[in-house]
Amino acid sequence: MRVPPDPRRILELAADACELTLTKLRTRRPRLASERARRIAAHAARMLGVEDREIAITLGVPPDEVRRMTREPVELAPCLAICAKLI
User: Fold this and answer.
1) Which residue, 27, 59, 71, 76, shows the most beta carbons closer than 10 Å to its own?
2) Whole-prediction pTM value?
3) Mean pLDDT in residue range 18-35
4) What is the pLDDT of residues 30-66, one digit of tens each?
5) In angstroms, rounded to a whole number, what is the distance separating the alpha carbons of residues 25 and 33?
């Protein structure tokens, strides 16, 4: 059985992929770049087997918000790059 990666590391990699700081990624202000990075983090977390609840706590949002993010389309390349770095 494989242990899912630390959700904080996923956020760090998503922030790097979008050229943001972690502070900007975690902001609740509706900015296109930070919303994109949060969606990438949510999708990558799902791909890696991280529970919605865990990534939601790390992002500081409710689990329903993570589920909403994963229903929205996102570029596959940054998600796969995050997965490749953590596997």
Assistant:
1) 59
2) 0.92
3) 85
4) 688 899 999 999 999 999 999 999 999 999 999 999 9
5) 8
Three-point CA angle 24, 62, 73, nearest 5°: 70
Q: At residue 29, does pLDDT exceed 90? A: no
Which residue is associated with the tokens 């490749």?
A: 84
Two tokens at 40? 């990438």
User: Residue 5 — left, alpha, or beta (φ > 0 → left; ψ -120 to 50 → alpha)?
Assistant: beta
Cα separation of the two ends of the chain: 13
Task: For residue 63, give both structure tokens.
Answer: 């689990």
DSSP 61: S
